[in-house]
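Backbone shape codes:
===
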Amino acid sequence: MESIFALLIPLGCGCVLPIVAIWLGIREKMNETNQRTQIVLAAIEKNPEMDIEELMRKISPKKKLLKEKLLSHLFSGCITSLLGIGLIILGFFLDHRGGMLSDKLIMTYFAGGILLAVGIAFLAHYYISKQMLAKEIEAEEKRVTSFQE
């Protein structure tokens, strides 16, 4: 009986959970699209001479600016790097204190190293993209400020 649960838990977490998460995301996007369609159809019924393009622009979701995307990568890099450093420090503490199985201690170091590497990759992506896209970000900011005025 225990072997069945030992098999079902990783299978559920590795296969079923990602499929359900993707399905829920797609379903949410479909519902948003259907709601926007209903709004446009209701607006057309009430006023046939309405400018549809302007209405669609107003109700469509706002796209993230380049700067916002880069800042999200900076945030993700900081969080994962700090988690990785925390796990490595925890491993050192448990190793120094003793009393932990070496397999679990190695897994702690391994998980910390992976998180630290992912965090460093996010931070490197942020700094490289910031340098490469500096002109595009500046142009986008000018465009947004001129649009708001």
